[in-house]
Write a sequence for this structure.
């Protein structure tokens, strides 16, 4: 049995929901309301000591960190669609694209960073949004170069959706939320639009989740 601890607006959770749907795996969801601080409740911290979502519980096994969860799902359920390609060079590229987003972009605009900028450093909303756009720009510029190297197709890597597309979709929503102009990033926008057409991506959308409000 697979239980995903998540929150509808969480980008990192959104990635894992996409992965689960792409792999056509059945799962249940346990929501933790981030704005109410439920991710820091003691019983949740015993699953995820960082107090972050997502966390996957597979029977008695607890897996944290969205990239690790997606790779775990791929290795544990190899009979369904693979999120990582079969050869090492292709896998490296998918991990690299995923890392641009999950390691170097998303952490700079997640809730705890934005709360710190607001509450500890006193930055008004306009400046917080400018901060987010600043880091989005760097990442999307790099991604646009990556996606122009001839190895992308209908999706980030070739013509099958991978873990990189699962990372990109929530980042596109963040870009929208922070008023970031995607016009200069034609390749990023193209592959993200292609992914958004897939049923798995639609099912994983924040506003379609049971805890959406
Ligand atoms: N690197 C982690 C990031 C997890 C993360 O930042 N989760 C955010 C939501 S997208 C969170 O739980 N934030 C709660 C908080 O900031 O207090 C992963 O990929 O799973």
């Amino acid at each position: 049995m697979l239980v995903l601890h998540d929150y509808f607006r969480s980008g990192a959770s959104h990635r894992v929901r996409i992965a689960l749907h792409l792999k056509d795996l059945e799962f249940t969801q346990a929501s933790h309301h981030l704005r109410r601080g439920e991710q820091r409740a003691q019983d949740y911290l015993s699953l995820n000591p960082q107090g972050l979502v997502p966390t996957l519980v597979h029977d008695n096994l607890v897996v944290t960190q969205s990239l690790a969860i997606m790779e775990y799902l791929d290795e544990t359920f190899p009979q369904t669609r693979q999120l990582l390609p079969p050869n090492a060079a292709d896998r490296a590229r998918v991990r690299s694209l995923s890392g641009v987003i999950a390691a170097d972009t998303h952490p700079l605009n997640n809730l705890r960073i934005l709360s710190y900028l607001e509450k500890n450093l006193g930055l008004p909303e306009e400046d917080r949004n400018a901060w987010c756009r600043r880091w989005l720009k760097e990442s999307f510029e790099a991604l646009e170069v990556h996606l122009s190297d001839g190895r992308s197709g209908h999706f980030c890597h070739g013509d099958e959706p991978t873990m990189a597309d699962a990372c990109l979709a929530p980042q596109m929503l963040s870009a929208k939320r922070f008023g970031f102009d995607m016009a200069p990033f034609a390749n990023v926008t193209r592959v993200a639009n292609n992914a958004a057409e897939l049923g798995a991506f639609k099912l994983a959308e924040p506003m379609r989740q049971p805890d959406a409000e």
